[in-house]
Specification:
Strand order of the largest sheet: 1-2-3-5-4
CATH architecture of the largest domain: Beta Barrel
Largest sheet: 5 strands, mixed, barrel
Distance between the termini: 57 Å
Strand content: 35-45%
Number of domains: 2
CATH class of the largest domain: Mainly Beta
Oligomer: single chain
């Protein structure tokens, strides 16, 4: 049989161990916070709203976590609309042979992808097709409708 004093000692040690665990776990919360800030495809884009945009490249930005292509597209009313196309990570594009110099301003391209849920002229790019027929996958592995991940 254990005495009251022994039980209190064991409880105190357990409480101290729990406190140490909490103190040691706090830094890991800060390490994982940036990962949670990275959005999922479905939070911004609608897989039920595919788009096919034909336009002229204005500029390309190789910035993390996603590269961006800006194109001017002639709308049905004849007005030019500037679209922002979100691509995969710059490193993923580089591994596919795509560099910041692959799309000089004025290049005519066709981009397929999925429109922003809020209706703005933004899309998550899936494929880019050059005028000569070459195609490049723009998305990130594991993102979007083609990947099976939502």
């Amino acid at each position: 049989m254990t005495s009251t004093r022994e039980r209190l000692t064991v409880q105190r040690r357990n409480a101290q161990g729990s406190w140490k665990f909490v103190v040691l776990a706090i830094p890991f919360l800060f390490v994982t916070t940036p990962l949670a800030a990275h959005h999922a495809f479905s939070s911004e884009f609608d897989e039920k709203k595919p788009v096919k945009l034909k336009g002229s490249v204005v500029k390309m930005e190789f910035t993390n976590p996603h590269a961006w292509i800006y194109i001017d597209v002639n709308g049905p009313d004849g007005k030019v609309v500037r679209w922002s196309i979100e691509c995969g990570a710059p490193n993923a594009l580089l591994r596919r042979g795509f560099t910041p110099r692959s799309l000089p301003p004025g290049t005519e391209i066709i981009v397929t992808g999925y429109r922003a849920k809020n209706g703005s002229p933004r899309a998550n790019g899936e494929d880019l097709t050059y005028a000569d027929g070459r195609t490049l996958f723009l998305g990130s592995p594991g993102e979007g409708p083609g990947s099976g991940v939502r």
